[in-house]
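Ticket #4471: structure export looks truncated?
Reporter: QA, pipeline team
Priority: medium

Steps to reproduce: submit the single chain below to the structure queue and open the exported record.
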Amino acid sequence: QAQLVESGGGLVQSGDSLRLSCASSGRPFTSYAIGWFRQAPGKEREIVSAIGWTGVMTYYVDSAKGRFTISRDIANGTVYLQMSSLKPEDTAVYYCAAGSGLGPLERRRFGSWGPGTQVTVSS
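Actual output as written to the record:
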């Protein structure tokens, strides 16, 4: 019901932090899970993190655990991905998408992809 758009990417050094935002241009996907994905050159797109519509259930890919934190603004539906201790291997285009269905967040059907935001981490 809304179009998603990512922001907050940029060029940072290893160890720095970035906060990505996933906002909607219309009615927020308040009853949908929101996932953050990334795709690096030559690699398949992978799910990085996801959060349920209630903001309670969360998922993190192993490489993000302890470094990334996903959160949801209940009021406006904006979903954030706070990324700390960034590494060069985090370099990728980051996308957010709305997930539907049931079960584990990482297995939801994600669609309504945003255009992405570039994250580049130098060593």
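Status: closed, not a bug. The export was complete when the record was re-opened. Leaving a note from the reviewer for reference: The chain has a mean pLDDT of 93.
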